[in-house]
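Tokens in:
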């Protein structure tokens, strides 16, 4: 089934108070905490890695939805597994040679594998990973160029979401970038069920209102 999951992107949080920011988002109704791991190479920004995930895990039991914007995702599997990550979503652009091995190792560390694609990457590239005998369990469609929060949603990406939903009725389809009250309906009607939101939620006076509005849109 495709249940709605609202994931707060902690990239928009106060990193100096990560544990309390995470707790605040969960109290506001977030299902997942979206953790953007960037290596300063795959994308022009550097954020957090396994040590921060390990520290956060000591403060929360929440689902840690890790989005790996890194050139060598395989190097992160063991450390993130040990750190207590829940989901491990790697980029198809960074795993053309080794996605089978990656999926297998992610699962062996008790994490849930997902694949992400950048706006310029055709949707067909993820089909083999979804249709494999040992498949990914989620596809993350980037709706901005990865690297930074607070960018403008790209409506053209909704064709990818529609195509995926038609082909795979029960797949978890996540959208990430520029999601908020003015864009959620486009994403939900295209068929996305996992919604990442950073700046729209953290910038709101009442994050709980934004989260429940987005959940209702997906449920409709
Ligand atoms: C972009 C990240 C996103 C980002 C979303 O590289 O993958 O998760 O934090 O932020 P907003 O919701 O502000 O676009
Ligand atoms: Zn992300």
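Residues out:
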């Amino acid at each position: 089934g495709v249940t709605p999951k609202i994931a707060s992107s902690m990239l928009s949080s106060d990193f100096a108070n990560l544990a309390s920011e995470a707790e605040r988002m969960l109290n506001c109704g977030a299902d997942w905490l979206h953790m953007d791991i960037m290596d300063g190479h795959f994308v022009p920004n550097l954020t957090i890695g396994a040590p921060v995930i390990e520290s956060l895990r000591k403060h929360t039991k929440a689902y840690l939805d890790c989005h790996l914007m890194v050139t060598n995702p395989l190097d992160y599997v063991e450390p993130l597994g040990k750190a207590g990550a829940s989901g491990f979503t790697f980029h198809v652009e960074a795993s053309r040679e080794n996605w089978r091995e990656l999926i297998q190792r992610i699962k062996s560390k008790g994490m849930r594998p997902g694949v992400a694609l950048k706006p310029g990457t055709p949707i067909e590239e993820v089909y083999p990973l979804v249709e494999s005998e040992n498949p990914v369990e989620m596809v993350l469609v980037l709706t901005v160029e990865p690297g930074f929060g607070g960018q403008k949603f790209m409506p053209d990406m909704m064709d990818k979401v529609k195509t995926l939903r038609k082909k795979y009725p029960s797949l978890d389809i996540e959208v990430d970038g520029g999601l908020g009250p003015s864009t959620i309906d486009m994403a939900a009607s295209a068929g996305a069920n996992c919604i990442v939101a950073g700046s729209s939620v953290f910038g709101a006076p009442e994050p709980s209102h934004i989260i429940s509005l987005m959940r209702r849109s997906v449920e409709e």
